[in-house]
């Protein structure tokens, strides 16, 4: 009989692997962080779990659920490391993958290269078939011709096959016929059928997603099988993978649709931030996850995260349901460099986990944001990760000095410049996800997490006039913690371009009824009980004649006719563009999200201990302010801070997984869940 019920969340980043475990009965939280393993992510995953299990005395048989955010698919795409893939498409569309949308990657950069075409022309094949725009078969597939084509693919040695036929999103009949022939003739290849992955129009994006899924499929499948086997050896059975849409999916689904894990880790962080802030009544958030390699920024408005089906991964457009997350190359390991005009730049190149920043003393020689923080006194100059990571400050000094000499600046001013440039890059991207969408950043609470997020939070608040920032209890592991709070989730979307008029509500009910049937089948397959099922409805809409649509969430309890649909669209449109018209509106996509509820982690409220935080002071450190001026910042131990404690800036708060900087004119108050809420004082 089990003595405990443990839930484990593991998030693998480019630099570190983060592990959060929680006892579902007592609410005890167990955390651990270690460097990511380069060759096989599961090595660090299992090693970290073993450490946590040994420290807290539980075994695999007591683990009720294991949730994993992975970057295996993303890394394979970024590095162009995938399977030899063949493509089968409709006659006349063989070169669509290469032609694309006929756009330059950068409008004003004449030297910019297009992304590499993942499949050579010799491996792109056509079948004579045709489906019209209504989904009616105009020309059926010739099975004998298909079998001849498959012999060519077999002789080519292709490891995977991607199938994308024109208008298959409306009627997958011809694609399913091809599936039958391929599975019989080539049973060993990894196969992706576009209509299984997406039932939305725009053939180029659907093609890219289908090809990428097959391109990374064999590697992801190998990783997942290895992970499942390795976890089984330590007694863990119930394993789930994080979906880019902020929900969980089974390992079997992740192996079939690996492209859906493209934003696996960042999505978990947004969900975790949404969960912990909802407990204290905060519904409007700017989430900013700054790790070792990148910064991921997202928006939560009214308690709902922004969603998008149009994402770009390493230059390839794909249509997969995902939380709308904007990513830039600005993390603790981002490298400072000097361009041809003698201008200081930071990122997107990163020192990664190996060799890492110069101060790690693992062979890195380039100056990074982490090295600048060490020199300025923001970071401990002796060790990080609770003493497990020794820091060699003189390496940081040598690395930054080399930059300083190139631009004839003083050492510490160069270090401040590295921080200023990185913050400028982040501010620009925050504006892209707020101001560009009709939101005022100062109306939102900044939720900063990741290993480096709390270091930047106070500075970003001042630059953007944001009044409040929240630093979670375990900011460096929030993505892993977010996995503990996630539900099973799957999105069902169908393109059907429909003019909005008086009879449109009947069409809406009909289309949603079809999607509800698909969702019910998925609920049954995942064995989710009826009382734990929920549906969220949305439309993608536009004015007639426009080429792109916007997402319009619907409350089906409130929407009773076409007029209510129009009102919801106009409200969303005016927020984005500050105006609306009486022109004809169109529904482009009908969609719903099927959510299978799980038991949320137990989070206990801590007893109020008063405002005095002096018991948490563990020393002080000189911090460079600029213009040759230093200030003595008191150091606080985050683990010793209690509910109600107030830390007035300037101050530095240290913990195992992160460091928080609090500036002059700011104060941080510890809430009942041991989050720190930083506010700018009047």
Task: Describe the overall structure.
This protein is α+β, with helices and mostly antiparallel strands and 682 residues long. Among the domains are: 6-76 and 222-261, Nucleotidyltransferase, domain 5, CATH 3.30.420; 82-215; 488-596, Dna Ligase, domain 1 (2-Layer Sandwich), CATH 3.30.1490. The longest helix has 31 residues, at 203-233. The radius of gyration is 26 Å and the shape is globular.
Give a brief outline of the structure.
Helix content is 31%, strand content 29%.
Percentage of residues in DSSP E strands:
25-35%
Amino- and carboxy-terminal Cα gap: 57 Å
Q: Helix content range of the residues, please?
A: 25-40%
User: How many distinct beta strands?
Assistant: 35
Domain Hydantoinase A/oxoprolinase: 207-488
Domain Acetophenone carboxylase-like C-terminal: 507-673
InterPro entries: ACX-like_C, ATPase_NBD, Hydant_A_N, Hydantoinase_A, Oxoprolinase-like
Pfam family, one: Hydantoinase_A
Notable characteristics:
682 residues, alpha+beta, Nucleotidyltransferase, domain 5, Dna Ligase, domain 1, nine-stranded mixed beta sheet, globular, 5-oxoprolinase (ATP-hydrolyzing) activity, ATPase_NBD, Hydantoinase_A, ACX-like_C
Show the helix and strand layout.
Elements: E1 6-12, E2 16-23, E3 29-35, H1 41-56, E4 63-69, H2 72-78, E5 85-90, H3 96-99, E6 124-127, E7 130-131, E8 137-139, H4 143-156, E9 160-164, H5 173-185, E10 190-193, H6 194-197, H7 203-233, E11 239-242, E12 248-250, H8 251-256, H9 264-278, E13 285-290, E14 295-301, E15 304-305, E16 307-313, E17 316-323, E18 325-328, E19 334-338, E20 344-350, H10 369-376, E21 383-384, E22 389-390, H11 393-407, H12 411-433, E23 445-449, H13 453-464, E24 468-471, H14 478-484, E25 488-499, H15 504-525, E26 533-543, E27 550-554, H16 562-577, E28 585-596, E29 617-626, E30 629-637, E31 646-648, E32 651-654, E33 659-662, E34 666-670, E35 676-680
Helix pairs in contact: 2-7, 4-5, 9-14, 10-11, 10-12, 11-12
